[in-house]
Amino acid sequence: MARVYLPPDANTLLSVADHCFRSRSYVNLIVIDKQPQLQWLDMDQAIEHCRKGAGIWEWAGTDDGDRDPDIVRPRIVSSATVTVLEARPHPL
């Protein structure tokens, strides 16, 4: 069985790498660019994000809970994370 991981930041990459190094009987593929990685989540948040497999970053969105999100971004590499965050109507 093969698993593909696309961590969105540095701490998530560390959590994913730890998980992959501990796994057995899997082919693990971690996709990340070669640029220095930003740190969007602290380590505890990154571990929880990886444990759930997906998450909503409340600080990065404009979701008021009354409608579906405008952007659903699966785990993709950090440069795409920056692009999605820049597309928000409100700056960070």
TrEMBL record:
Gene Ontology MF terms in the entry: aldehyde-lyase activity
Domain Xylulose 5-phosphate/Fructose 6-phosphate phosphoketolase C-terminal: 34-87
Organism, as annotated: Actinoplanes xinjiangensis
Record's protein name: D-xylulose 5-phosphate/D-fructose 6-phosphate phosphoketolase
GO biological-process terms attached to the record: carbohydrate metabolic process
Coiled-coil ranges from the UniProt annotation: none
